[in-house]
Amino acid sequence: xxxxxxxxxxxxxxxxxxxxxxxxxxxxxxxxxxGISRAAVWKYIKRLEELGLQLESVKxxxxxxxxxxxxxxxxxxxxxxDTEVKNAxxxxxxxxxxxxxxxxxxxxxxxxYHLCLAERQTAGRxxxxxxxxxxxxxxxxxSLGWKxxxxxxxxxxxxxxVGCAVIRALxxxxxxxxxxxxxxxxxxxEKKLAGILVEIRGxxxxxxxxxxxxxxxxxxxxxxxAIGQPWIDLHQLACVEGVDLxxxxxxxAILLNQLLPMLMTYEQLGFESYQREWESCHSHQGxxxxxxxxxxxxxxxxxxVDQEGALILRDANNQLHHxxxxxVSLRLQQ
Length: 334
Ligand code: BTN
Description:
alpha+beta
């Protein structure tokens, strides 16, 4: 698919803005608003469809977005931030399209509290070298730069802390079902709702910079099997839980209001302050699981996490194992 350039984006954003009210608009009306021909309107409508948006076209009435959307908007996010968060956040960069929001921040200098968001990622990164499927205007692709003076060993458990922040934000949004899967997945009904990828640059023993990447399925409009694992989105969950789902911009602000204060005190408090909170949201707490580490397999009961965020597993011989992240994958034993 061709990439979106700045000129095309300003037109596409205007068309989406006009169609966002959920009513039909004729090609003529859209053309008048944008100062372009009906043929050009048609071209932009086709492009939106190519990007994955679902549009209805009714003869005599015009075009309508099947699901009205609100594009990412710095002003809306900024208005909803708590004062201490607003003061701490240094910069917000929003892209209609980017390879990876994590990747972008890793190329920038001075990324502390720089937030990068995108409508679409063309090479979204998941954990363990996987691709994070990132369709246009349907989900949240969020990366936050953060500088640490303590070195990575003091940051064990950071990605688990981010999981706690995501759960706190979802609870604030009224959603009770999501839970955590070690080390840093957010699940609902055993299906993936969000993933966290923390990437690091700099001196691992001293001052280093981290990029905290969060991918949150908001309203995923892709084929069920386009993603290599069972997934769920907030829209489905909100329907089940009978909740009025906040917009993506609102949710991003809620998440920042939770995450930033936790990061600001993390180096003094450490993960141990969040250990119990993490366990209280743990989907597999006390359950029998199977861990795959390369070719070896370990089965046991999940007892929780230790002060460093390592998973504590008790095997059939009553032996305790403390497992750290990396190339470990975990699944519930049937
Ligand atoms: C996982 O595999 O569970 C982690 C997925 C992390 C995806 C997010 S989306 C925003 C940020 N940019 C990326 O390229 N990846 C992370």
